[in-house]
Structure formats: C-alpha cells, structure tokens
Fold:
Amino acid sequence: MVERNFYTEDIVLQRILKKHLGHEFFDYAEERLTEFGERVAGIIDDRAKHTDREGQPKLIKYDKMGDDVSKVWVNEGYMQTVKETYNTGIVAYPHKEIPELGQVGNYLYSYAQGYLLSQSEPGFYCPVTLTMATAYLIDHYADGELRDQFLPHVISTGEVELYEGATFLTERQGGSDVGANVVEAVNEGDSYRLYGEKYFASNAGMCGVAMVLARMEGAPSGTKGLSLFLVPWEENRANQQLSIRRLKDKLGVRAVPSAEVEFQGAKAYLVGDPKQGFKYMMEALNLSRVCNAVASIGIMRRAYVEARDYAFNREAFGNKLNHYPMVKDTLVNMLAKLEVETYATFDVVNLFDQVMNKDANVTEEEQALLRLYIAIMKKETAEQAIHYSHEAIEMHGGNGFIEDFVTPRLLRDAQVLTVWEGTANILGLEVLRLLEKYQIHELFLQDLEARLRHVTPKAQKLTDPIKEKMERLKETLVKLSQAPDDVKLMYPKKLAKDMSDLFEAVVALEQIEEGLTFEKDFAVAEVFIHQTFRSSKYNQEPLALKYYDLIVNQHHPVSI
Structure:
C-alpha cells in the first residue's frame, strides 16, 4: 500500500501558497504541511474512522454520588488529534508570531491546514473553527485585561494549557432568527450572570471558553439588544452554574459534541460595546463561513481522489473503470470544478486576510464585497461537497454504500455543511440585503469586469460565455429591482448561484498563464466554462475525451 500525503499530492494547493506566501514563509509552510499532510492522510484518518464508528463523544451527566457534572468523554485518539492539530498553529498564527519565522502568520496558512484536515476529519475542524472564531473575537474586541487572561490559552501551541473555543447563538424559539434570543445577562459589578438555554451548542464540554450572545436587562428586542459575553467553561461547570442537558444525535460530523446547554447563573464577562454584540458575532460568523467553505472543498478533494483511485483500480466488464468514456467524463468534470472552486475559495481567503486585519484601513464597500463573496462561496461549496460525495459513491457502486469505505462518512459529514453557518435560504437573504443596502451587484460586476480585462490574450478566447452571462445577470437585476417584495424573495438563491458561477469562471481564466502549466490550465478553464454555462459553441466537442489525459492526474492513483 502506497503511503498517502494530502499535501504533496495537491499541486493546486502548493501553487496557491507559492503565489501568495513570501519565499521564507512558503518554505516553512511547505515543510510543515508536508508533515501534516502525511499525518492527516494516515493516523488522523484512522482515528477519524474510529471516532465516527465506535468512539463518539458521550455525555457523563452525573457522578457516582448523583451530582450533575456535565462532562463530555472523547476517545484517546481524538484527544491526540486535538493536541497535534492545535500545536501546528492552525488557530494561533493569525494572532501571534511563528517562532521559526519571527513574524505573525495569516489566515491563508491556517485555512490551508484546515483544508488538509477536512479531508479526513471535518468533524474536528468544527471545534477548530469555533476556536478560531473565539480567538478573533477576543483579540479584536475584548478589553486588555480579559484579552491577556484568555487569549494566550485560546491560541496555545503547547506552551500553556489550551482552551478550545465555542460560539453559542442558537436558541430553541428562534434558530436562525437570532433576534428572538432570550438568554438573559444580569449585571453583577465587574461581571454578569447568564440565565437561559442555548439549543445547538457545538464543542460544549470540550471548550475552555464560550462566546455567548445574551440580552442585558432593559435591552431592546431583536438583534440590536444582544451583547457578547465570554463565559469561562470549567469554572462555571464546577460550580454547577451551567450544565449540559443532552448531546445531539447527529447524522454526521460525529466527532464534535453538539449539545443543549443551560446557564444557571453562569459567570460571564462583557466583550466590547454592549450594543455591538450581534455585529461582532456576525464577523466571527463570516470567519466560520470561510472555514465551512474550506471544509467543503476538503471533502470535495477527498471524494474526487477516492473516485479516481477506485476507477483506476476496479475492473468491470473486462476493463478498468477509467477505460470507459462515461467515467472519463465524470473524472474530468469533477477535477475541473474542484480545481476552479479551490482557487476561488482561496481567492476569498486572501481577501479575508486583507479586510479582516484589525490594523487594515478598509471601506464599508470592501467589507460588503467580502461578505458577498463569502456568502456565495459558502453556499456553492457546501452544495458541491454533497454532490461530490454522491459521485464518489456512484463510482464505487455498492461498495460506496459500505462503511468499510470512507464514502458514506463523506456524504454524512458533507450534509451538515449546507446547514452550519447559514442555510442556502439564509445566505440568499444575505445576498439580497447586500443588493439593497450597498448595490453590491454593481461592485461585484465592476470587480469581475476589471479582472477580465487583465487575463492573458489566450484566456480571452474563453470569455464570451462569461460576458453573455454577465449581461443576462444585469437584465435580471433590473427586473428584480422593480418587482414586489414577495417576488424578490423568490430569487436570492438563484442570484447567489449565478454570482458564484461568474466569480469562479473569472478565477479560472486568471489561472491561465504562459508557461509549463498553460495547456492544463486552459483545458480546466474550458471544461469548467462549458460545464457551467453550456455554451452552444462547445456542445459538439467531447471535451472530457479531448482533455482526459491532460486534466486527470494519472501519477498519484494508488492501489486500494
């Protein structure tokens, strides 16, 4: 059996990092990601399988004396994955110096790690995501004393005790309607006491601190009346001022304990301006949505690799599966979309690094454009993760439905990504709000038009379907602006899809550069544009057969 390495096998990820990281940072990242890519493809993958099938988190509700202890048990392998992953700096280095480099890292490197991790353990990437969001909120908005007390633990790489993070928004009566939240914060001098329930609290029992939205006495209704609080977990659990009612029995991502949490006078500290709590949490939510997109392309990558390797090894009707044109078509289309979506997602990551830097001087319009790109890419990647998992099962046939293979877990884990951090309907509403408040479509189209002007002359040959689609989008937006509200609310998801298609197509053209990879990049872009826009110009040409040898990497398939 050939040893796998999710990093060294991924030319696209290497190309992205080499382009956007400085020379010294790239050399560091190359060495560390090579090590991490081997562990994720090996021992961490083995642990993930054990956790999913036999070692799921369990709630220890009471001790032997009948006292409520609300502890969560996780298996030893999972705990080792926790230690190894956080020690890589996946959470820490956007906030503190990388010792070997003497400089602060960035989200690009962190999300590259998350992309590799998600190919084996997207369930555990949820706690990592929550810890990233917690670190962001503390670093950006906590006062100096609170920051000094808790941030070193949240961004620990082994030098102090690790506090994993959590963000608690959802309540039973509201769900996605966060403005309906009723958890109450009662002032107690320098701190507060929280009372109430959070209904879908992921990483409960494992976190050291939880970031919680609650409503102060006398605060107005709706989201404007919500403030952000830091809740130390272990202190409140030991004092029986919070408890876990039960763990959720979930379809997938079983590695992460998701719970119903009750606050019974839990001690909490106000973070930032009490009138800005919802705004702060929405910034953290956008960070989590990027994580969600990264996890999605991680699952897409694993699903493609599993489908490809099976096709190269499995015989049927006297030939390997990859001999048959329909299989070639599937593999070519999967890889073209995967590569383009990976480039596009990390394009958003680069923009996120620029806009979310607390020292950056960015405009409200730039922030709004980032929100748009995050929303449309979160929606598209999550839906594609499910599709790719389905395609991998199809390639395996009956074997794909058997838990001995990774494919069932990929599908179960992928399904939650369309729900976490906002369903397609919620993301569509975000697009509609941005259209109405910022006329974001104008900024969006201006950005794409400017980028199209700078693609290479050879790439210009593929621009006609994109320009046609942009014109149709403009016409649609004019009609929609004149429509009554109930009609407008029918189309936000379709608008989000049209925008993600256009954005990805432009990103695909930007990868076409003169040099060794020109033919491959051109082929990928052409297949993607045909696949996405179905231009009649290409309908008669079997692109999958024409480009199969060029696009589908035949150097890495392994024996299964």
